[in-house]
Amino acid sequence: MVVSIDHHVKLVFSEAGFMFCNCVFVDDDIKAIIDTGADVKSLNAIKPDQIDMVLYTHHHYDHTRGHRFFTGAQTYIHADDTQALSDWDEFMYYNSIDRWDELMPGIDYREAAAQLGIEAAGKPDIDIHGVLTDGQVLDFGHTKVEVLHTPGHSAGHCCFWFPDQEFLFTGDICLTQAGPWYGEIMASPDQMIQSIDRLVALNPPRVCSCHINEINTDPKAAMKEFRQRIIKRDERIYAFLKKKPADLHEIAEQHLIYRLHPTPFVLFWEKLMVIKHLERLEKMGMVKTVEDGLFTAV
Ligand SMILES: [Zn+2]
Ligand SMILES: [Zn+2]
Predict the structure, then answer these.
(1) What is the chain's alpha carbon radius of gyration, rounded to the nearest angstrom?
(2) Domain extent at residue 259
(3) 113 and 246, same structural domain?
(4) Which bound ligand lies closest to the C-alpha atom of 60?
(5) What are 288's strand-pairing partners?
(6) 254 alpha carbon – ligand 1 mean position (Å)
(7) Are residues 202 and 72 in the same domain?
(8) For residue range 199-253, what is the model confidence (pLDDT) as tens digits?
(9) Domain stops at, among 203, 227, 251
(10) Per-residue pLDDT tens for 150-161?
(11) How many independent structural domains does the chain possess?
């Protein structure tokens, strides 16, 4: 579904749910799209073969999956995410899938991926023609957009600020109930906090993310609450370890990040996220490692 912000800036809301994403269509002298992960019907509505530029918020598959439809476009992403799209091994490394067997012993990755509908999630075949940089302003004719490098979810994650429309596209600073996510190898909850703080300071009157199909006209409170969830996760893990030392697997079984684990992937993500919090709590001097991979509260 295409929803207009103004004459030139339109949101492409995905109608396929999880593992797809919302995109922004700039319908101007230069035609551009930010992310290509909407459902095929929604992408077809904007004639993807006529788009000149594809800009990516970050490298994740749910954002890049429709790339093959944009046959005439030049593609841009932040330099810190280019490597993730370079070959299969790098794709697995950047998505932390190379840690699957270690963290999920006895569970087959391909079966779990198929359950999630991402069996075709090989590295998307994407040529990168240029990189996005923080503060860069792209001019499409009547529309300008400023690139904001907002790492945390991935190292190269970017948000896009349309100053004339006073509209911010926040990518996977997604403001959903499941977020924020910072599980992959290059992700960082500390950077996620800094990036959210930057967006709060920008104080945009209107925002939309890649995973909520609405324009939020009171985003400051939502962004602050989203940030606070990171602190609450710290507190829940610390409180559990205060009761007794535990290893990563036992901590993950407590559902301190995700209330439900409906697929093995969610347990995998829980473990990746707990690792990030343990690193953060160790840095803050609140948790330490004891022997045999056990963690304890200090
Ligand atoms: Zn993502
Ligand atoms: Zn996403």
Answers:
(1) 19
(2) 233-297
(3) no
(4) 1
(5) 296
(6) 24
(7) yes
(8) 999 999 999 999 999 999 999 999 999 999 999 999 999 999 999 999 999 999 9
(9) 227
(10) 999 999 999 999
(11) 2
